[in-house]
């Protein structure tokens, strides 16, 4: 424990006294990081493939490409982000003064990462915070041992402990509580709502800056005018990408009763089209950890007494795999709708009237994403205005980081967006510098003549 505090103290002193956080030094670190990441790329394919049984195409587009894209972006623009900018005022104000602003890093940051998939998200967050000039204490998610090892190897080859220090993932609860007592300038957490509230209770009394990215339930909604073939294709792809373990994959389906039966038939056909007929479990990504797999299957088994499996339900305990499983849910308080089940399980809620949708979605506490399939423009505009969310996708399901877009939530699903410029805004604050070259004496004098002129002007207004 003393060792952790000494490292934290070194980071504080390093941040306050060193020029190592200059953009020129960080730019050279970024260029080096880009080279190191490419050096480990082959090993990343191997480790991720063996750990989660992901296809090579998925690994490249979800784990490798987003990181390379992010690093290249910061290499080109780090000077722009770190450069002071002149504040625009009117000509007279600018004549004898110069007001500038620049992005100031918060300093010493604690990163508590609980969302394990995709792995690229961890790289994007940490690189972004380091580029901003912060020093980091990081607790990684419960990846496999090999995945954690390679993440640490890549960062440690470029950044020493003064920049980033990785806390042991198996740290005891008591030691972690002691780490919470350190005087961090910013705390970042991603994970579930219950743990996010605990983090807020710990750090809010100290007025520590808290940045949250929370797993919430993202609904995909189909009304009776929806293009069912298109919706089926998008739902199968997004729900099975990384085994449904991303924070932006659809978590439950809300569908109009008139199209329910026909859509299920189309969905089964599309599932066979994308994964082949017959047994598909070998083609599905593994659940990240044994603990998560056991929690998900336990919730599924307990809920079966009250809910009905529409199709799927096959599991493989040895491989930690779950086949695409649709479960019809009648009770909105069901564990399938209230607890984290990031997996290929898709609860289905049937509605009769469009007015029912608001009440159903409210149970997900401000989702990050809403996916709405409809041809009715009035309904699209109505839902867009009535339900709060960070992303609203019309006749599409778009995973933000997959497309190079920022990711994040709003209100109960998070506090900020992340990726590229948005990462800079999340992990820095705007500092304003005011310089005056000449000071007018008139503002210090009780000028009777000018006061009388203003008084006359006010009287004329009346």
CATH superfamily of the largest domain: Aldehyde Dehydrogenase, Chain A, domain 1
What is the domain total for the residues? 2
Structural class: alpha/beta
Mean pLDDT: 87
Please outline the major beta sheet.
7 strands, mixed
What is the CATH architecture assignment of the largest domain?
3-Layer(aba) Sandwich
- Separation of termini? 71 Å
- Our Rg estimate from Cα atoms comes to 26 Å
- Tell me the number of helical segments per DSSP (H or I, 4 or more residues long): 17
What's the shape? globular
The strand order across the widest sheet is 10-13-14-9-8-15-16
**Ranges with pLDDT <50 over ≥5 residues?**
none
Look up the CATH topology of the largest domain.
Aldehyde Dehydrogenase, Chain A, domain 1
CATH C-level class of the largest domain: Alpha Beta
Number of strand elements:
19
Helix content bin: 40-55%
Range of strand content: 15-25%
Please characterize this protein's 3D structure:
Belongs to the aldehyde dehydrogenase family. It comes from Malacoplasma penetrans (strain HF-2) (Mycoplasma penetrans). Keywords: Oxidoreductase. There is one protein chain. The chain has 2 domains: 1-215 and 413-435, Aldehyde Dehydrogenase, Chain A, domain 1, CATH 3.40.605; 219-408, Aldehyde Dehydrogenase, Chain A, domain 2 (3-Layer(aba) Sandwich). The chain is an alpha/beta fold and 462 residues long. It is globular and about 85 Å long. The strands form 5 sheets. It has a 7-stranded mixed β-sheet with strand order 10-13-14-9-8-15-16. Helix content is 44%, strand content 19%. It has helices at residues 2-17, 23-39, 41-52, 56-82, 91-95, 119-131, 145-156, 173-180, 193-203, 228-240, 260-275, 290-303, 335-338, 356-361, 377-386, 421-427, 448-461; strands at 85-86, 97-105, 108-113, 135-139, 164-167, 186-191, 209-214, 219-222, 252-256, 308-311, 315-316, 321-322, 325-328, 345-351, 369-373, 391-394, 407-408, 417-418, 428-436. α2 (23-39) runs antiparallel to α4 (56-82) and α10 crosses α11. The longest helix has 27 residues, at 56-82. It has 17 helices and 19 strands.
